[in-house]
């Protein structure tokens, strides 16, 4: 350990050391890493030293940005590399790109990009880590319009299991470049990425909130509406049981509600307003729709900022009908409020198209992403887990069998990894894993195990 501490700029902490708990803490508090060593990397050289140290001793390596994911496998032992100190954004306004370091949050990128009249493909929660979000696919607020965030990566710097820092692009180590965009943490620690920014400064967006008693009408109208909207329109519908806390405004505080969230940044002036007219006609109890700066887009979902313990699950769905809505409402409607959020995000549009430079993100044929989330502070895990299991069983007839990596958390995540990928892509990922990480040093994650190693790097 001492020798490693001599070779890195950031702190190297063991469980007995002061600062260890702070260093391993993340947003998600349900499952915490408890590594033998945590290395607070200050730059790529620290990451290289930590990976080489671990590889040389046969120790597994985990990596943590903001800790928003509930790790499929929390590190018990091994080396945890934290990247919060590696937080930097460089925007090239002429090229329409940004260079983003490993520990950067989306809100930092949004802020810098806005100064150049541009926006990244960030998601509902601005404080999520930009790099791991993107490596896991990245379902953005504007993804139906522009595609997955992973579809707009130009280059990556990555430290692989052999301790080498590699710069990979479509032309340089293209197999590794393909695998990292979707395969996330299985091939190395990404220290920075170059991404495209979109020519977006404002959008039309916000939320319509309805009482849960209107859930059947709202879900029915939403599905009919979603089937007709152009790819300029991005949206979701969710049953949300809101806590009775001062942070939630009246009249929705403490209520079981239905939210339709909307983000539209294309199609010309007035497009968003015109498109949402049929939804407004249902008569929401709260309506925040309007023009807003992209930098304010976090207000659309108002995702929680404070750390918390969350149990969640996800499934990709195909077309859904009234029977699917009924199945969901039977289990999460007015009389059964155990899951705190039950959400359908509308997919399709550009998400269904293969990207200009292929990547490992799978399930592009799905029409909806189904998410179920519960806060452990508000209900017992013994009630939450069976309630979630019933939800996913009920929705099975409409499931494509696929899942989205970024929302794949909870108790079964480790066994579900394969479902994030198309079958041939998963085989290619396991072959590439055998080339770049044959000892599975990066296994404290949503793991893709090494295959037979048929591909040469
Ligand atoms: C409230 C909330 C809202 C969300 N909204 C969206 C959304 O709209 N769209 C969406 O796509 N996702 C969304 N997510 C999921 C989120 O994008 C993923 O959980 C993401 O991985 C979080 O990244 P992090 O760095 O913040 O978390 P971490 O827990 O630090 O990292 C997550 C995983 O990524 C890996 N990782 C971290 N850094 C690196 C690195 N430098 N190199 C390689 N691997 C790395 C780690 O192994 C870790 O297991 C949301 C999550 C939450 C909690």
TrEMBL record:
GO molecular function list: FAD binding; oxidoreductase activity
Superkingdom to which the source organism belongs: Bacteria
Keyword field contains Aminoacyl-tRNA synthetase: no
Keyword entries, A-Z: FAD, Flavoprotein, Oxidoreductase
Domain FAD-binding PCMH-type, chain residue ranges per copy: 31-200
One Pfam family cited in the UniProt record for this chain: FAD_binding_4
Region (Disordered): 1-23
Gene3D superfamilies: 3.30.465.10, 3.40.462.20, Uridine Diphospho-n-acetylenolpyruvylglucosamine Reductase, domain 2
Cofactor(s) listed: FAD
SUPFAM superfamilies: FAD-binding/transporter-associated domain-like (SSF56176)
InterPro entries: BBE, FAD-bd_PCMH, FAD-bd_PCMH-like_sf, FAD-bd_PCMH_sub1, FAD-bd_PCMH_sub2, FAD-linked_Oxidoreductase, Oxid_FAD_bind_N, Oxy_OxRdtase_FAD_BS
Family: Belongs to the oxygen-dependent FAD-linked oxidoreductase family.
Protein's UniProt name: FAD/FMN-containing dehydrogenase
Species of origin: Actinorugispora endophytica
Lineage of origin: Bacteria, Bacillati, Actinomycetota, Actinomycetes, Streptosporangiales
């Amino acid at each position: 350990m001492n020798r490693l501490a001599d070779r890195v700029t950031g702190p190297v902490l063991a469980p007995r050391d002061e600062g260890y708990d702070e260093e391993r803490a993340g947003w998600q508090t349900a499952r915490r890493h408890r590594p033998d060593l945590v290395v607070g990397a200050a730059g790529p050289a620290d990451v290289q030293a930590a990976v080489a140290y671990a590889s040389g001793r046969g120790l597994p390596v985990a990596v943590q940005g903001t800790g928003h994911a509930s790790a499929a496998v929390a590190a018990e032992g091994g080396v945890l590399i934290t990247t919060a100190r590696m937080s930097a954004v460089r925007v090239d306004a002429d090229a329409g790109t940004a260079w983003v370091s490993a520990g950067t949050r989306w809100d930092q990128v949004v802020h810098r990009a806005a100064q150049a009249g541009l926006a990244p493909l960030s998601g509902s929660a601005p404080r999520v880590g930009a790099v791991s979000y993107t490596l896991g696919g990245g379902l953005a607020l504007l993804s139906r319009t522009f595609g997955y965030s992973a579809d707009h990566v130009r280059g990556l710097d990555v430290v692989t299991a052999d301790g080498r820092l590699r710069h990979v692009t479509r032309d340089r180590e293209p197999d590794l470049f393909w695998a990292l965009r979707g395969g996330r943490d299985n091939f190395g620690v990404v220290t920075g990425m170059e991404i495209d920014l979109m020519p977006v400064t404002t959008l039309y967006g916000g939320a319509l909130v309805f009482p849960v008693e209107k859930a059947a009408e709202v879900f029915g109208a939403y599905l009919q509406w979603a089937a007709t909207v152009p790819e300029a329109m991005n949206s979701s519908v969710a049953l949300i049981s809101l806590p009775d806390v001062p942070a939630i405004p009246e009249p929705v505080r403490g209520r079981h509600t239905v939210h339709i969230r909307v983000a539209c940044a294309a199609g010309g002036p007035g497009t968003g307003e015109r498109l949402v007219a049929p939804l407004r006609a249902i008569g929401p109890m709260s309506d925040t729709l309007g023009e807003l700066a992209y930098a304010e887009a976090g207000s659309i979902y108002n995702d929680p900022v404070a750390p918390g313990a969350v149990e969640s699950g996800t499934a990709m769905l195909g077309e859904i009908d009234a029977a699917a809505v009924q199945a969901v409402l039977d289990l999460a409607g007015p009389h059964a409020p155990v899951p705190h959020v039950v959400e359908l995000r509308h997919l399709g549009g550009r998400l269904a198209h293969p990207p200009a430079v292929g990547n490992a993100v799978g399930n592009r044929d799905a029409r909806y992403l189904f998410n179920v989330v519960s806060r452990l502070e508000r209900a017992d895990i013994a009630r939450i887990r069976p309630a979630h299991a019933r939800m996913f069983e009920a929705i099975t007839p409409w499931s494509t069998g696929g899942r989205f990596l970024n929302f794949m958390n909870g108790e079964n995540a480790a066994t579900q990894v394969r479902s994030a990928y198309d079958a041939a892509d998963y085989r290619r990922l396991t072959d590439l894993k055998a080339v770049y990480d044959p000892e599975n040093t990066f296994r404290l994650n949503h793991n893709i195990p090494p295959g037979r190693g048929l591909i040469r790097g």
